[in-house]
Amino acid sequence: MNELLLVAGMALVTVAIRYPTMAIFGRIPLPDALIRALRYVPVAVLTAIIVPLMIMPDGEVALSLDNAFLIGGIAATVIAWRTKNLLLTIVLGMAIFLIWRAVI
């Protein structure tokens, strides 16, 4: 029961924080430059989460061939850049990561 109340409380706080902003900006037309800039927010947030985990998997900087996270991340970046296919990037990036980790 406590978990259910915790989840409900978090949902309520999230809605309470976000709804006023959405209500205000839903009625005001935003400049095109801002809309274009907001398209980069998901990429920037994911990069901010993933890159530190790739570079420091154990809490220390590991820029070596032993770091399967780094190798998999670099491979996924190259695959995404060349193919622009999200599913292929995820599948091949994970496959390269798992193979590299098994080999090393």
Textual characterization of the structure:
This protein is mostly helical and 104 residues long. It folds into two domains: 1-30; 31-103, no CATH class. Helices cover 77% and strands 0% of the residues. The chain contains five helices and no strands. The protein has helices at 2-25, 32-38, 41-55, 68-83, 86-103. It starts with a helix and ends with a helix. The mean pLDDT is 92.
Decide which structural class fits the backbone. mainly alpha
Radius of gyration: 20 Å
Order of helices and strands: HHHHH
Alpha-carbon distance between the two ends:
45 Å
Number of strands: 0
Give the biggest beta sheet: none
Shape: extended
How many domain modules?
2
Into which percentage range does the β-strand content fall? under 5%
User: What are the segments in which pLDDT stays under 50 over at least 5 consecutive residues?
Assistant: none
Overall pLDDT confidence: 92
In which range does the helix fraction lie? over 70%
Q: How many DSSP H or I helices? A: 5
Structure keywords:
104 residues; 2 domains; 5 helices
SSE blueprint:
Blueprint: H1 2-25, H2 32-38, H3 41-55, H4 68-83, H5 86-103
Nutshell version of this structure?
This protein has 104 residues and is mainly α.
